[in-house]
Amino acid sequence: MCCTGVTVQLTIKLNNKINYCIGRRSMTMDKIFVAIDDSEDSLRVLAFGQSFAAQLEADLSAVSVVLNKHEIATRRSTLKARLANHHNENIAIDVVAHDSAKEYLGEIASREDAGLCMMAHGRRPVPEMLIGSVTAGVVRRAQRPVYLCGPRYDGLIHQRVDVLAVCIDGSKLSEQILPYASVLAKRLGARLQLLQVIDTAAARKPTMLGYTDVMESAYLTALARRVEKEQGHEVDWEVLHGDPADSIVSYLADSHNTMLAMTTHGRSGLSQVVAGSVSHEVLHETSCPVAVLRP
């Protein structure tokens, strides 16, 4: 994710000339797909998928990918039994054979008329490099946001989406999720909020002398006005201080009915270990669903 610290660009954006054009995105999302496998844990994301689809007034379908055609019947039978045990026997199940679950689900997530929900097991970078991660692979392939529930997701606290909080760090990369978030907030009837984290340790460097509260808020204020003008959606904002991941997780700790939206570099394996990943850490720790986009 791109909330990586101090936004040095503030000083050149104080005149409100935001370089990034918000633009508009079409997002019909008439159908919500929930990716599940034969593990009990994957069924947890169904609760979010059901509430998300209901709020969007969209159809809901569960999808599961197997490697070989002869596995389809067994997987479908297993899933139907487990859905019945969770009183979800009326959910449609589509089991398909494909040599790459990442590619198949990535194609679904890229569709304009669909949204894909997945369970993210929240593995740390090194184990993820060793065992692989379907979720990470889907995010890297998808052309649109993927809606993820981490290991601490709590469907009792987040039963719907009343607030859509978008993490921004001043970079064009982080801003690329804004068109999707704005359209989605309208569809959900949710409040749109911009979040920026200022790394206080970095802000104390000599190059940041004169850094003031006014400068901190100027960028978000200008960006919020830009979104309001171009998208016709009222926006509020909040500046946080401290370590990016810790600050975001702490801010969301007492939230209810919230979804977080953020971009990610989509690094995998060793590069993620070296560079770090705010999105990975936030997804692992927060209890709310997270919309993740790799531009």
TrEMBL record:
<comment type="similarity">
    <text>Belongs to the universal stress protein A family.</text>
</comment>
<keyword id="KW-0547">Nucleotide-binding</keyword>
<dbReference type="InterPro" id="IPR006015">
    <property type="entry name" value="Universal_stress_UspA"/>
</dbReference>
<keyword id="KW-0067">ATP-binding</keyword>
<dbReference type="InterPro" id="IPR014729">
    <property type="entry name" value="Rossmann-like_a/b/a_fold"/>
</dbReference>
<dbReference type="InterPro" id="IPR006016">
    <property type="entry name" value="UspA"/>
</dbReference>
<feature type="domain" description="UspA">
    <location>
        <begin position="78"/>
        <end position="148"/>
    </location>
</feature>
<protein>
    <submittedName>
        <fullName>Universal stress protein</fullName>
    </submittedName>
</protein>
<dbReference type="GO" id="GO:0005524">
    <property type="term" value="F:ATP binding"/>
</dbReference>
<dbReference type="Pfam" id="PF00582">
    <property type="entry name" value="Usp"/>
</dbReference>
<feature type="domain" description="UspA">
    <location>
        <begin position="165"/>
        <end position="294"/>
    </location>
</feature>
